[in-house]
Amino acid sequence: MSDPNNVKGATRFARVRAALEARTPRAGWRLWIYEFLLFGFKQGWACLFGALMLALLLGTHFFYPADAPLARNDFLTIMAVLIQAGMLAFRLENWEEAKVILAFHVTGTIMEQFKTRSGSWNYADGGVLHIGMVPLYSGFMYAAVGSYIARVWRIFRFRFEPYPPLWTTIVLAVAIYINFFAHHWLPDIRLGLFAATALLFWRTQVYFTVWRAERRMPLLVGWFLVALFIWFAENIGTFAHAWSYPNQRKGWELVSPAKLGAWYLLMIISFVMVSLVHGRKSPRE
User: Fold this and answer.
1) For residue 206, with 0-12 CB atoms within 10 Å meaning exposed, 13-18 middle and 19 or more buried, which class applies?
2) Has this prediction a pTM greater than 0.70?
3) What is the rounded distance in angstroms from the CA atom of residue 116 to the CA atom of residue 87?
4) How far apart are the C-alpha atoms of 48 and 278, rounded to whole Å?
5) With bands split at pLDDT 50, 70 and 90, how would you rate the model's confidence at 95?
6) How far is it, in rounded angstroms, from Cα 36 to Cα 217?
7) pLDDT tens, 102-120?
8) How far apart are CA 56 and CA 181, in angstroms?
9) Which of 69, 98, 63 is nearest to 84 (CA)?
10) Phi-psi region of 9 (alpha: psi -120 to 50; beta: other; left: phi over 0)
11) How distant is the alpha carbon of residue 160 from its chain centre?
12) Residue 67, CB half-sphere, CA atoms under 13 Å: how many?
């Protein structure tokens, strides 16, 4: 393995990871426990941007003054920008990941404009940092997903076998993105998109390295697990009144589990966008 301190674009995490992976606990169950804890540490690091955003949403929900001269929406946007800048300045994130985050911010903001106008969900009023009915911090929620996928891809050194032709994955991702808009006036083809996803990826395994041994998981299962955790995060976001679905306007309710399907399809878009940066094999650290 190359020295993480000498690899161009390596983050500070690479040095910490290398130190943890160099440790050698006693054999037996201690090895399993250590690998499990290392897995949790790496996942936590990959979730850092999203976790900070959720902490902001909850913190401002409970403690932000209603009569503050700076609207909560604007405060969230400014803090999201500062978090992003800080992660780059302190090398907690590299520029390749920042490019992915920017792409997610743009595609997410475009979707938000359409979805809020069509009444799928809405944001609280207030502030000047918004486009139409959408506060600018909303794009960072999509960016948090992109940040996680880009970081976990690098941290766990993902590789995939077998992998479908790249052009087929791009076509699938574009079709999913278009359907998020088009199903409002055309037939919803998400069942067909699920079928196409299964057809393309049902044999694909994601190989990842937590510590020393490479492990694997069906990629379709991995996407579901990520979608599930995003659904948990969405419940936290709506509880904090960052946005609301129509059924939550009279009081908070659990986000419908049916949204898992939408988040699963978002995983396809996210995955393909990151694959264009990292490729299908393990990226350098």
Assistant:
1) buried
2) yes
3) 30
4) 20
5) confident
6) 16
7) 888 888 888 889 989 888 8
8) 29
9) 98
10) left
11) 19
12) 0
